[in-house]
Amino acid sequence: MRMILFCVLLLAALPAIPQDRTPLPRDINAVTLSRLPPVTAADLDEEGQRLLAARTNFKPAPGPTHVTIYSPRELDLGIPSGEKSPVGPRYFQLAVLIMAREIDQQYEWSAHEPAGRRQGLEQAVIDVVKYNRDVAGLSEKDATLITFGRTLFREHRVSSELWEKMVNQFGRQRTVQLMMIMGDYFRVGFMLNAIDQHLPPERAALLPPLTK
């Protein structure tokens, strides 16, 4: 019995051997533990570089800060016209419409469909979003953004391949800014849906219901 007790105490005193961690997927950065590597000046436009340089205490690490640092501006994402948006007014409006369609947000849609047309967004592209049509036939850039927004909202994640396509088409900074625009309009639209926001009498309802 004493020998057994001695062995138990001896084993308890030995240092624990750490278990091997599951290897990270190939597109996950070891510092941020995400698909976004630590930001560099080369990732940013001139204004972003200036603001990044002023943040001398920033250290990349996991969490939301290393994402939003890709858009380190006194944020004006262009709301509501998109004219000042760094992604450009056309893609600003397309990003808004993608999210409005996904949450069936009539108030947002009925304002931003005509705004999109004013900013050069073609009705054919709007209708792909409006009627949940296939993106075949659209430009690669438009198709990628629509697919990205739909997939992220419906499946709550995107594949490595789709993420890579977004970055190839828009760059890391603009991809983050497009996500921020969709996130802003999701947040507002979510609340408008909750309070059953109706349209003012002078505004036509432009978003048809979809059969799901």
What does this structure look like?
Helix content is 52%, strand content 0%. The N and C termini lie far apart (69 Å). Helix 4 packs across helix 8 (160-194) and helix 7 (140-155) packs across helix 8. It folds into two domains: 24-74, no CATH class; 75-194, AhpD-like (Up-down Bundle). It has eight helices and no strands. It has helices at 2-13, 46-54, 65-68, 89-102, 106-118, 123-130, 140-155, 160-194. It has 212 residues and is mainly α. It is globular, with a radius of gyration of 23 Å.
As for the CATH topology of the largest domain, it is AhpD-like
- The total beta strand count reads 0
The description of the largest β-sheet is:
none
Structural class: mainly alpha
Uncertain stretches of 5 or more adjacent residues? 3-19
Strand portion: under 5%
Question: CATH H-level name of the largest domain... which superfamily?
Answer: AhpD-like
Total of helices: 8
Spatial shape: globular
Identify the quaternary structure here: single chain
Mean pLDDT: 86
Secondary-structure element pattern, one letter each:
HHHHHHHH
Amino- and carboxy-terminal Cα gap: 69 Å
Per CATH, the class of the largest domain reads Mainly Alpha
